[in-house]
UniProtKB/TrEMBL annotation:
Entry protein name: Glutamine amidotransferase domain-containing protein
PANTHER family in alphabetical order: BLL2462 PROTEIN (PTHR37947:SF1)
Annotated coiled-coil segments of the chain: 84-111
Biased composition (Basic and acidic residues): 643-654
């Protein structure tokens, strides 16, 4: 067992005999010397000397000298690059403090410096909502044993959102110091959304609760808040400061309804970024009311009914004209229906309550008066939706085109029909239109993988977009906008063949679903539109257009900085670009004609909840680890600006006025050992024999 004398030097004992034999021998020898001492025999001191020298020789002591190589301690500096650091001159102070700290730490040969940055939003999806400095600290020292940690320095404004609950465990890291980049006694105003629903029914308002706060104290009794919905005209309301306030948001359409809120600046402001907020309410329809009018019974009726009845959110009103007025077959009146069909109620009184009207193989038979058909045309112009699927009757003198509906239908009949097999195909325009783009089974370089149809009405388009074609490349599906409404015309009644699986069937369910949703103005199916989607801190800008559009779009950040984005066209009507947001807030995307909004981050991101510089969040950490909190602004003046750095022993103070300490652990590795015997064998034997001879001679006198 070695015994330390000096750092790196020790004496090691390597007995020549086992301790089980050596200990009794030494005990007997000691007993003999003790008995001689009790009898006061001559030469006791010499006998004791001989025994001690012999015992020491048998223990075989040696001097062990270790060759040690010191191991550098590790100090981690975490720089806060979060959005709140962009306020005032905080970022410049942080960079200056980092430069001064780096220069001073390089003067210590036994210290390794690691610098990490955090909070810039380039990492995980939600990084820009909160400042996570301790996550960055843990990653930086993941491969470092805790006995080598000298400590850490956080250069930040103090708004840190991942301070561990159990701060006692941080003591093993060493002292954790905080250098604050802001100024004392800062003030700010912010607006927060206290309560907001995620969904709302189209046509009905939802209630929001907002709050305006002045920090640290109220600067005025109320403030003007500007509201802007979907980028429209602004309106202003007065909101009391420091109290919850309720406002109403009308849900005008399906999809995202974005409400922007901006409160006027106060006398004392750090940033205007938290003077803005946004609420996204997804508009959903309570019930979709569909009116289906079948001109005559046929196999395709079941396709329409199955599609519409399968959706529980659809209220379907369906009637089929089984017995037109001109039919005279002698059926007694008492055997006919006793309930008159509510034509006036449907086509005059409650017409505007329907979201979609479908005419399936309808022809003029005097059931619907011209006045009601004119009502339907006006209903479309005001924002309604109409789908017409043509049967044989559309090519006849009884065609719907020869009624008031002809003024809104996008295709005129030629009077001819095509009765031979054909396979519907997607046009070039259709491959860019969201209704038909990417339909399952469509192939750009060959015939589509779906079944044939056998009947088509020959039509000539007089407006709109032809997205599908049939026999002889004649228009098959035409889409058009009329006034505020939309019209779709399918020049065949044989889509039911796909639903029956004829020749493998086809994508009838997907096609009709998209068609119905486009007619009812679902935002996801707009063919000429600009939108922005948010996934964490990534913004995907998408522009849909029926014609390629090479123009770049302009992205405006919450701090009103603008960037030009070039979109990549994927040949399906979509041009896309992706950008990473580095701050929470409202981003605007514009191509000069349309504007889209993207709300990045939580409704009330903690990063902007309170942007004042504070050391309160780090107070428990500094107390547990022995670190300190220093304001960079307080140490900026002097012959040598900045905080002084000292290497300190673990049991000493780690911080003081104007200085911080980093623990000196003194760890090392042993690279070699030198072993030198302390008692040469010859000298020991001579000393023992000499002592024994002198003792024998003394006793012999």
């Amino acid at each position: 067992m070695p015994v330390d004398l000096l750092s790196g030097t020790s004496i090691a004992l390597a007995p020549l005999l086992p301790w089980a034999l050596l200990a009794p021998l030494l005990g007997v020898a000691a007993l003999v010397v003790l008995v001689a001492a009790i009898r006061r025999a001559r030469g006791v001191a010499l006998r004791l000397l001989a025994v001690l020298v012999l015992a020491l020789a048998l223990m075989n002591p040696s001097l062990v000298q270790e060759k040690r190589e010191p191991i550098k301690d590790v100090a981690v500096v975490v720089v806060d690059d979060s959005p709140s650091q962009a306020i005032g001159n905080r970022r410049s102070r942080a960079e200056q403090a980092l430069a001064e700290l780096t220069e001073r730490l390089k003067a210590f040969d036994d210290l390794e410096l690691r610098v990490v940055r955090a909070g810039d939003g380039a990492g995980e999806a939600g990084a820009i909502n909160e400042t996570h400095l301790f996550d960055a600290l843990n990653r930086a020292m993941a491969d470092v044993p805790r006995r080598r940690m000298a400590g850490a320095v956080l250069i930040t404004d103090g708004q840190i959102h991942d301070v561990p609950e159990n701060v006692a465990k941080l003591a093993e890291i060493g002292p954790i110091h905080t250098l604050l980049t802001g100024d004392r006694d800062e003030g700010d105003r912010r607006i927060a959304v206290v309560q907001a629903p995620s969904y709302g029914l189209v046509g009905k308002p939802v209630e929001l609760t907002i709050r305006v706060d002045d920090m640290p104290g109220r600067q005025s009794p109320d403030a003007a808040v500007t509201l802007r919905q979907d980028g429209g005209a602004p309106r202003s309301v007065r909101v009391p400061v420091g109290r919850d306030f309720r406002i109403e948001l009308p849900v005008n359409h399906g999809g995202q309804n974005v409400l922007e809120l901006e409160v006027e600046a106060a006398r004392q402001e750090l940033t205007l970024s938290n003077n803005r907020a946004a609420v996204v309410v997804n508009g959903v329809r309570d019930r979709l009311r569909v009116l289906l009018v079948s001109g005559e019974p046929h196999a395709g009726e079941r396709t329409w009914r199955n599609l519409l009845k399968a959706d529980p959110s659809v209220d379907l009103v369906h009637f089929t004209i089984l017995r037109p007025p001109e039919k005279q077959d002698g059926t007694p009146i008492r055997e006919l229906s006793l309930i008159a069909f509510p034509i006036r109620e449907l086509f005059e009184v409650k017409l505007d309550e329907f979201d979609l009207i479908i005419f399936d193989r309808y022809r003029r038979r005097g059931v619907l008066p011209q006045m009601y058909l004119e009502n339907i045309a006006e209903y479309v112009r005001k924002g309604g939706a109409l789908l017409e699927t043509s049967g044989q009757g559309y090519a006849s003198p009884l065609s719907l085109y020869r009624t008031p509906l002809g003024s809104i239908l996008p295709a005129a009949p030629t009077g001819q029909t095509i009765d031979r097999p054909f396979r519907p195909t997607i046009t070039e325009t259709g491959r860019r239109h969201p209704v038909t783009a990417g339909l399952p089974g469509d192939r750009v370089d060959g015939d589509p993988q779906w079944g044939r149809w056998f009947h088509q009405v020959e039509v000539t388009p007089n407006g709109g977009a032809v997205v599908m074609q049939g026999a002889d490349q004649r228009p098959l599906l035409v889409l058009d906008r009329v006034g505020k409404g939309r019209v779709a015309q399918l020049a065949s009644d044989q889509i039911w063949l796909w639903s029956r699986g004829f020749e493998g069937g086809g994508p009838q369910a997907e096609l009709l679903r998209r068609l119905a949703h486009w007619l009812m103005k679902e935002p996801e199916l707009e063919e000429n539109d600009l939108r922005a989607r948010v996934d964490g801190n990534r913004i995907t800008v998408e522009r849909r257009s029926l014609e390629p559009d090479p123009r770049p779009v302009t992205l405006t950040t919450p701090s009103d900085e603008t960037t030009a984005l070039t979109l990549t066209d994927d040949k399906t009507g979509r041009a896309v670009a992706t950008v990473t947001a580095n701050a929470p807030g409202i981003y605007r995307v514009s191509d000069g004609e349309r504007t889209a909004l993207a709300v990045v981050g939580a409704v009330n991101p903690p990063e902007l909840a309170d942007v004042r510089t504070t050391g309160d969040r780090m107070a428990p950490v500094t107390k547990a680890t022995g670190g300190g909190v220093h304001w960079i602004a307080d140490t900026a003046d002097g012959p040598r600006p900045g905080v002084e750095v000292r290497r300190t022993r673990p049991d000493r103070e780690q911080t003081g006025s104007g200085w911080i300490g980093l623990r000196a652990n003194g760890d090392f590795t042993v690279t070699g050992v030198v072993d030198v015997p302390l008692l040469p064998v010859g000298a020991v034997l001579a000393l023992v024999l000499g002592a024994m001879l002198m003792a024998w001679r003394r006793e012999g006198r």
